[in-house]
Amino acid sequence: MSAPDVSTNHSGLMDRVYRHQRHIYDLTRKYYLLGRDRMIAELSPPVGGTVLELGCGTGRNLILAARRFPNAHFYGLDISAEMLATARASIARAGLSDRISLAQADATAFDAAALFGRSGFDRVFVSYALSMIPGWERSVSAALSVADGSVHIVDFGQQEGLPGWFRNLLRGWLGKFHVSPRESLATEIARQAQATGKSFRFSSLYRGYAWLVVVGGPKPI
């Protein structure tokens, strides 16, 4: 199956999964998509800077980030037209349509210049999307290729410090939504960071429930 076929099939799958879920997505996910707000707080784009989110979903993270950093401009892409419909409505209600631009695209292969009129961004972030993307490694490569500054990624870890029963219960629940925590997430990102000569910082949050990775940028004080 070719890459365009995979992209089209995945777009249709995500639309089917979230056609109705998108209306309650933020209300339900806030209880288990942990670490997102910490990641957003660490973005710290420069004044007048640009921030891109891959797999922006309902726009929740973009809205939060735009409010936290009022002197930056934000961009988001998602493969699901259904999710983007919710994102555009939420962004408009928040009064942020002038600072947040959206586009439908595959996070594994996109043309930022064609979508947004720019080829680089001061910050790029991915929140709980790699665990849903076939060929997620290509999304990491895509993020690094358009990042003039740092790349920030948070996603499910391997729950290494949590009881086995909890891990099994979580994996069963996530499977219903076509979500698969990536065992090689940290090692693959570290490999790509090294290949591009960028620094790599890894944090295991909540006993391994979530993993937070930052590629490039200064180390926190």
What is the H/E order? HHHEHEHEHEHEHHEE
Shape: globular
Helical fraction equals 40-55%
Helix count from the secondary structure assignment: 9
Q: Reading side by side through the largest sheet, how are the strands ordered?
A: 3-2-1-4-5-7-6
Structural class comes to alpha/beta
Q: What is the CATH class name?
A: Alpha Beta
Radius of gyration: 16 Å
Q: Quick one: biggest sheet?
A: 7 strands, mixed
Question: What is the CATH homologous superfamily assignment?
Answer: Vaccinia Virus protein VP39
Low-pLDDT stretches are 13-31
Count of individual beta strands? 7
Please name the CATH topology. Rossmann fold
Our count of domains comes out at 1
End-to-end C-alpha gap = 47 Å
CATH architecture group name: 3-Layer(aba) Sandwich
Give structural notes:
By secondary structure, this protein is α/β, with parallel strands linked by helices. It has one domain (3-215): 3-Layer(aba) Sandwich (Rossmann fold), CATH 3.40.50.150. It is built from nine helices and seven strands. The protein has a seven-stranded mixed beta sheet with strand order 3-2-1-4-5-7-6, sandwiched between helices. Helix 7 (136-146) runs parallel beside helix 9 (185-195). The chain is globular. It starts with a helix and ends in a 6-residue tail after the last strand. Residues 13-31 have low confidence and may be disordered.
Tag the structure with descriptive keywords.
7-stranded mixed β-sheet; CFA/CMAS; 41% helix; 7 strands; Rossmann fold
Outline:
With 221 residues, the protein is an alpha/beta fold. The protein contains nine helices and seven strands, in the order αααβαβαβαβαβααββ. It has one domain: Vaccinia Virus protein VP39 (Rossmann fold), CATH 3.40.50.
